[in-house]
Write a structure and sequence with these properties.
319 residues; alpha/beta; Rossmann fold; two-stranded parallel sheet; 12 strands; 27% helix; globular
């Protein structure tokens, strides 16, 4: 199978270059959302899987290269699953997080992504207790939907430049949702997720939320509402919050609630001077990574590495 996958690098996806680290998987089961399945496999057995969802106008390869997930995964031997949107589904290659038919675990794009995940778990050696999801913008919003729909699938999530689940319930509401409207109470936001599982008691994974305070595309209050929503569904409403400026990165304020480990917490990173972008730290030194791009900004802070640390996948020296 591995040799066969190598032979189809670059097929069925016009955005993969000869230098691409991603491998296309044309057949992965029911593809109700008509997406493309791309992977960066590991070289050893029983390794963590990171599901990475790109933003609008991006390709999957661009998303993992700009963020630095491709290099980080190679260095630490993580398995990457990177679904890719087709222009035929959305002319800007956005995941359709605002269409009810595409954020249903049994239908549309969400179902395709979950089938890709099931395929990877069946055909590769992956640690099923170490499955994580991350996404930027529309990819972040689809990540939130998948976490809300199938929380038992994931150990943790990290999202960039997006908002809470259920703020847009039809396409005409997407722009208002991106501007943080309507502003719902924590109880209302919590019920939008809990109503998905009326007869089931579920444990929801930890969530790490990143947002630029200068984001003019998805307004910063969207991240605050997402933080409130996840705090509510994890029943951490009454827990004390901790707010700190990161010691080496004082332009980032971290607000957290829950345990100090990575198992039961919600964390909000608010970044001064950051627009609709992810923070990166291009370079070759240890702890540096990511690339400069329209959707990234060099803030001497490699967000993907910080996510991997929050996920418990990378250890910090001295800790």
């Amino acid at each position: 199978m591995w040799r066969g996958l190598l032979l189809i690098i670059g097929l069925n996806t016009g955005f993969l270059s000869a230098q691409s680290s991603l491998v296309a998987v044309p057949e992965f089961g029911a593809n109700l959302g008509s997406l493309e399945c791309l992977i960066q496999p590991t070289s050893t057995k029983n390794r963590p899987l990171i599901l990475v969802l790109h933003g609008c106008t991006q390709s999957a390869q661009e998303a993992i290269s700009v963020s630095g997930w491709d290099a980080l995964a190679k260095e630490n031997d993580f398995f990457l699953l990177a679904p890719q949107q087709r222009i035929g589904n959305n002319p800007n290659r956005c995941f359709n997080w605002f269409r009810p038919e595409d954020i249903d675990s049994l239908n549309g794009e969400a179902a395709s992504i979950l089938n890709m995940l099931s395929y990877c778990l069946t055909h590769f050696s992956i640690d099923t207790s170490q499955i994580f999801i991350t996404g930027f913008s529309a990819g972040g919003q689809m990540s939130v939907s998948l976490l809300a729909l199938t929380p038992a699938r994931f150990k943790g999530g990290a999202v960039f430049a997006c908002g809470p689940y259920g703020l847009a319930e039809k396409p005409g509401q997407a722009l208002k949702a991106m501007h943080g409207q309507p502003e719902l109470t924590e109880k209302q936001l919590t019920l939008r997720v809990m109503n998905l599982h009326p007869e089931t008691a579920l444990s929801f994974p930890s969530l790490y939320i990143y947002h630029g305070l200068d984001d003019g595309v998805v307004y910063p209050n969207c991240a605050v509402m997402l933080y409130m929503q996840w705090r509510g569904i994890k029943q951490l409403n009454a827990s004390p919050e901790k707010e700190v400026l990161l010691k080496e990165h004082p332009f980032i304020q971290r607000t957290s609630v829950g345990s100090t480990d990575n198992y039961n917490r919600v964390v909000l990173y608010q970044c001064t001077g950051l627009g609709h972008q992810i923070p990166v730290d291009p370079g070759t030194n240890s702890g540096q990574g990511g690339q400069y791009n329209l959707f990234s900004k060099d803030q001497n802070f490699w967000a993907a590495m910080n996510v991997a640390i929050d996920f418990g996948l990378v250890k910090v020296e001295g800790q």
